[in-house]
Amino acid sequence: MRFAAGIVSLIVALATVRASGAEWQPEGLLPTSAVLRDILAVQARASGSADPRFAQRRERWTYVHETRRIAVTVAVRGDDFRTSLELDGLTYTGGRTAGARWRGDGNGIVHGIQADLQGDPLDRPPQAIFTLDPAACSLAGEARLPAPAWVIETHPDGGKPAFLYIDEASGTIVREVMHDGKQTLTTNFDDFEPLDGALRARHWRVEDGNADEMLDVRVDGIEPGAVSAADVAFPARRLFAPVAPLASSANFDASFRGGRIELRVSVDGTPDWFTLDTGTTSITVDPKIARRFGGATLQHVVLPRVAVGPLQLDRVSALTVPFYGNGILGLDFFFGHVIEIDYRDNLVRVLSADDAATVFADPKTAIVPINVDQGMPLVQAGFGAAQSDAFALDTGSPHLYVMDPFVTRFAREIADHWTPVGHSYVERYLEGGIEVQPFRVASFDFANLHVRDLLVGGQVPTKRTDDLAVPFDGIIGTDILQNFDLYFDYDNARLALRH
Questions:
Q1: At residue 400, does pLDDT exceed 70?
Q2: Which of 50, 179, 217, 470 is 20 to 30 A from residue 432's alpha carbon, by CA?
Q3: Whole-structure pTM value
Q4: In order of start, what are the domains of the chain with their CATH numbers?
């Protein structure tokens, strides 16, 4: 499957540009005189040395959410694992393959999980119950829970940082905390039992501050046995595709307002307007739409049918997040066909195979490689000597921004050649906010476009609790994208551009 090499290679690259500066930390952390090496040794002794047979094993869990009980199967092969569950007839997966953390939604779209924490109680198992890499850990302090606990921060390749609380008396990990923007996930572990020499939590509770989203997890069984590479690999992909191959290209009913693109959508026969957003990792709806179909479970709902022009998908998995509109057509929508966005003529259409082939074969068309393995299209872009292949194309963002990893890596270049303009301000997104300082720069290079004398926002560290720790280097918003006629071909990892 094409995702495997892409996700692994991209995560390796992103691991080198992890956000720095004023990173978020949980409340209640205290200074400690303990030494990280000693803490990890205590934790390793407490965890024990499991029977080698358990390096390959299958586990059975039960997710309990309100009155629902959801069976989860887990396959483990060394450091790789894969979880799988069914929710309202759709299969959701998550796991780690060759060091890369990933998830697959009910539509079968698989991507890495650097981007955000939305929907994660369902499809992102806690880091603490799998192999801990000491090289990815740093000491954050200690806390009272009320019992004393050391707190280490782990930065695994392919996953969000997590704060792990290690009980000072027992050496077991009793809490895991992850944070991104507006959302904080807290997992508390208990009911520890020995398993052939290793101590394992048999129960944990996941909370995000919303009582309706509380999740209890019970480990029902752990059985050693052969697990093949296929058992922990990425699952097959299901496409948001036309009912039949398109004989000709078709326009969508679209509205362009203030840089935002809205498409006319039918949800089980009811018309609506959804935002077309390349920067969102899933099809997303407001909870009021989910309530029409029985409500959401852990921020997920299955929509009976979604139709956009000639495209339709039966039984659509969607995230539910309260926001300003009714829905978002994110990552899932772009697979299975080529989507054109023409800002000059305010046009959005889906291309037939013949028309798409003509566009990409035209020598006047610029073809740009894109990487969609982290849930949004990433491209090569930059400012003179300050270049990166981790700029996200985001039709839901208004401006050009560089994130903290880029600002940190090219601090000297920015200090020498960028001119601060005015005061910083907060740009708000669905998941949280980023504070940016406007700069005037001489030029910006993207594809065959060279924009001269323009403004760019550079992320600045703050103590705001809803700040996003964006792992990408930058965001290319609509102030740049509006210069193009864009053709998104996610299946072939490429983008065609015409001026």
A1: yes
A2: 217
A3: 0.88
A4: 3-232 (2.50.20.10), 250-361 (2.40.70.10), 369-498 (2.40.70.10)
